[in-house]
What we know:
Layout: H1 13-26, E1 32-34, H2 36-41, E2 51-54, H3 59-68, E3 94-97, E4 106-111, H4 112-115, E5 134-136, E6 163-165, H5 167-181, H6 189-203, H7 219-223, H8 228-242
Parallel strand pairs: 2-4
Antiparallel strand pairs: 1-2, 3-4, 5-6
Helix pairs in contact: 5-6, 5-8
Amino acid sequence: MDIPPEGLKPLGTVELAASIAQLLDEAEIPNVLWRALAVYCHGVPGGGCPDFVIPDHLIQPAYEKLLASGFFPCEDGDECPQHWHPHLSLRPDRHVHIIPGDGRAAVCLYKKSGLLWRLPDFEIGPPAVDDRYLMLASDKRLPPRTGVISGSGPWPSYLYPVKIPTAACIIETYILLSCRDYDEEQNSYFYTWQCWLFGMLVHVQDKCFNDEDLLPDFQPYYRTPPPGRNAKFIELRNKLMDRNELPPSPPYKSSD
Length: 256
């Protein structure tokens, strides 16, 4: 992958995500697209730079692969926008820049244990058609693009296949993350997860998803309208804590 000295600005983010997925797959590093571009596939407007979830033990090789392929290391330290207050997402475990000097144009890499700990181990290649956790960004079951302010629709089939979480997986994950980080004073991630969850609730329901796709534990919270939803949230969180299914809430500081 040849990257010009000025960076990858002419390349669309969808094409860029497909190129990165191919780079990582060829290096035998399993990967799943996450955050803005993942929900964009499911109908949430916006999009953004591609971010990926990587198996924990391969996060450093993934980072080194992107650097070796022409992406740019961060030179701004804690002044980089990717290290600012986490109003958009978890602080990345590693990140590279797409355009030198542009702190917001970045590809972020996240450890699986910090986000998708419940999922089975990732594998190279497309997921099974009936996989409840993962699908391809080109899957025709995704809602079609309906205009400028809409999701991406299924990605073109000529692009390299990119794995994304299913709508149910994304919603369950943001509920789980909200439960994990609820009332944690050392970070503000709870509000981040609630914002992303709200985007899914507003834009995705009644399209390619219904609440029966959720696991039974999550359905009462999802189906209950405010303000009763708060009580269902606490019930779910207590149940998960009793079963020891919530890892410790992460500090704001990352290993990046």
